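Hello,

Our lab assistant flagged a job as stuck in the queue for most of the afternoon. It eventually completed. Since we weren't sure the result was trustworthy after the delay, we are filing this so someone can double-check. Below is the sequence as submitted and the structure that was eventually returned. Let us know if re-running is recommended.
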Amino acid sequence: MKPLENINSNGGFSEFSEQNLMSFVIVKNHQINAMKNTNELFSHLWNDYISTNPEVKSVYNLFVGEGEDIRHDHIAFRTFDHPKVNIDVLAKWFIDHGYQLRGEYHFEEKHLYARHYEHKSDKNAPRVFISHLKTNEFSDYLQSMVKDIVGKIPADVLRDEKLLTAGSTWENLPSYNVYNRLREESEYAAWMYLFGYTVNHFAINVNHLQNFTSLEKINEFLKNKGYIMNESGGEIKGSPEKLLEQSSIRASLQTLNFKEGQYEVPVTYYEFTRRYPDANGKLFSGFIAKSADKIFESTDYYNHA
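-- returned structure --
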C-alpha cells in the first residue's frame, strides 16, 4: 500500500498509510457525530427547560441583549435513589454521549447524594450535576409516595432518554395537600412530585462573559430588573479562595392547577458560576458541597408577601 505523506507535530513529514488514514477518518467522524448528538441532546434539554419556565429565557435574552455570548457551565437534574431512576440511570444517557464521572458530593442535612460528570473531549460541553434523595432516611409516608411515583412511570420512558424530559408522568392533576405534606419533610421531594424529570437549572459560565465579569455585577443587574436572588448562605456562595463562586435567582412562581384549586409554586431557576485557577493555573472544575447545599434552596417555597 502506498504511504501518504502527513505533516507531523514538528512540521516534518511522516508516512501515513491509507489504512491508517481511513481509521483516522472513521474516528473523527465518530467524534463529530457524537458531538452533534450531544449538541442535539442539550438543545432538546434547553427547549424543555425554557418551556417549563419561560422566565429563564427572559434572563438569557437580557444578557444576550447586553452583547454576551452565553455558554453554560453546567446543568442539573434531581431524582430519587430508587433503582429504576437513581443517579446511575440518569447518568447513563450522558455517559453514552461521552461523559465521565468526575466528582461526588454528600449533603447530610438534606439527605442528598450527588455526582458530577464532564465530557471526555469537548471542553465546552456543560458539566452535568445529578443528585438523588436518600428516601430510606425519611418517613414511611414519603417512601410510599416515591414508590408510587416511580411505579407510575411508563416502562418505555424508563428505558429511553425521554426520561430526562418526561416531567411528572405520575399525576395529571397533583394534590396541593400532598405537595405541602412532602414539603414538611423535604422541599426537594415536593419539587420532584410536581415537576419530576426536567432540567432543574442551567448555570451560565461567567468566565466566558465579556461585560459581566463578577457575580456582584450580575446580581445587581438582575435585581434592578426585578429578579429575586437566592440569599440563603449569602447572595454569593463560595469565594475566590475556594476557587468557585455561585449565585442564582430564586425559582419563579407559576400558578398551577391542583386537585384543590390553583396555587403559586416555585418552578425552575437560573444559576451563575465563576471558576478560579488553582496554584498550578488549572481552572477548578468541581463543586463545593457547602455552596451547592444553599443553591438547592433556590426552589424552596416562598410567596411575594
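-- support follow-up --
The delay was a queue issue, not a problem with the job. The result is valid. The chain has two domains: 4-38, 40-299. Residues 1-17, 21-35 have pLDDT under 50 and may be disordered.
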